[in-house]
Amino acid sequence: MTRVTMTVNGKAVSGEVEGRTLLSQFLREGLGLTGTHIGCDTSQCGACVVHVNGQDVKSCTTFALECEGAEVRTIEGMANPDGSLSTIQQAFQDHHGLQCGFCTPGMVMTASALLAKNPTPSEAEIRHYLEGNICRCTGYHNIVKAILAASGQDVSHLGHGDAVAAE
Amino acid sequence: MYAFELVRPATLDEAVTALGAEEAQALGGGQTLIPTLKQRLAAPAKLVCLSGLAELKGVCIADDGAVCVGGATPHAVVAAEAAAHYPALAALAGNIGDPAVRNRGTIGGSLANNDPSACYPAAALGSGATIRTVNRDIAADDFFQGMFTTALEDGEIITEVRFPVPERAAYQKFEQPASRFALVGVFVAKYDDGVRVAVTGASEGGVFRWAEAEAALSGDFSAGAIAGLSLDADMMIGDLHGSPEYRAHLVKVLTGRAVTAAG
Ligand SMILES: Cc1cc2nc3c(=O)[nH]c(=O)nc-3n(C[C@H](O)[C@H](O)[C@H](O)COP(=O)(O)OP(=O)(O)OC[C@H]3O[C@@H](n4cnc5c(N)ncnc54)[C@H](O)[C@@H]3O)c2cc1C
Ligand code: FES
Ligand code: FES
Q: Where exactly does CATH 1.10.150.120 map onto chain A?
């Protein structure tokens, strides 16, 4: 076992891990941060996406020890300091961007990484960026709509269009 | 996963020493190796992390104009930093897998793995790139030796890949929608001294150069120039995603599209 130390959601944390301990395991089992979901464990679904030094990565495909000294952010660190939902989270709620919610942590982390790089993405850019995030429920339309809305873009033209038709 | 020790060297020299140990293996971005370890298809005693080696990361331009990509440079960095110098290469890197894969997966890992459906091998072979390792330079024409097989020795680290920049080039990828790898991908590059055409995803022998198309396009760089050519389906991969005949057909269609896209 080796000791690993990192910052998770602004707090310094450390724990004993094996070489093979995945970041997802360390977060969920070591720190009890079970908001990071494991959908596939085969690098396909994106439910486990977290930020490591500001980059969106699949925590099921990253070793905990590779994050020694890193700044990690998970879905638990997304809300505003007063506990209210962040803009992206609120937009998912307002626009029905989730149904069962299993994919949602990964969707929110991926969306926030996109908006950090590209504050007003087009619908096509959003869809392309979500390529690695699989949702079993929503059909994606309302997720895309939520991200458009979170970026401050007008989604009223989608109100009675595709998104509603897909609901 | 079987248990192993994971080490994070701070310098290339330390990495080389660590890889000298029995059953040691390099860890690039882990986007291929970690899934492989989970399936217990690999059982190294020690993994040597290359992600902490700043000297293996980034894109720079050599005196002769070649675009040089550090062996541990993630795909997303190549997509951003090579865009102004070699747009076709940057576009290829920016279309590998998904954003999270591109933030971790590296060029060295992709070339060393030589997956028959991977994108980078087509860029390296199609550009006549040089694969530089800790102890030698290997021409792309000698590097790829069949599916999942390369000229690399055990523990030999790819430190840099040098791409001569063509006059025009383009990569066309027909995506296998579930895996996001290339069902077939074709990289076409036009240089002063001729055209190179590299095909991935199609052949049982891994990435290959389509010599007849190169000859035809070197005379006339237009999609029409390959109209009369056809590929032998015998050497093509057949699986539930596409028959050998379908892949042979796709190679020709995508070659034509790549020529058109290269302009
Ligand atoms: C969902 C998903 C989709 C993907 N889609 C695509 C796609 O569309 N196109 C595509 O081309 N690829 C795709 N990939 C593969 C991806 O590009 C991998 O990043 C890449 O194949 C391996 O690079 P890595 O740095 O992750 O290597 P690792 O997984 O760390 O290692 C792979 C192999 O290379 C060796 N290695 C690593 N670095 C070096 C080095 N510098 N020198 C020598 N040996 C080294 C390792 O020992 C190992 O044997 C996808 C992967 C996933 C998970
Ligand atoms: S759990 Fe990590 S990609 Fe599905
Ligand atoms: S809301 Fe159920 S998987 Fe996306």
A: 87-150
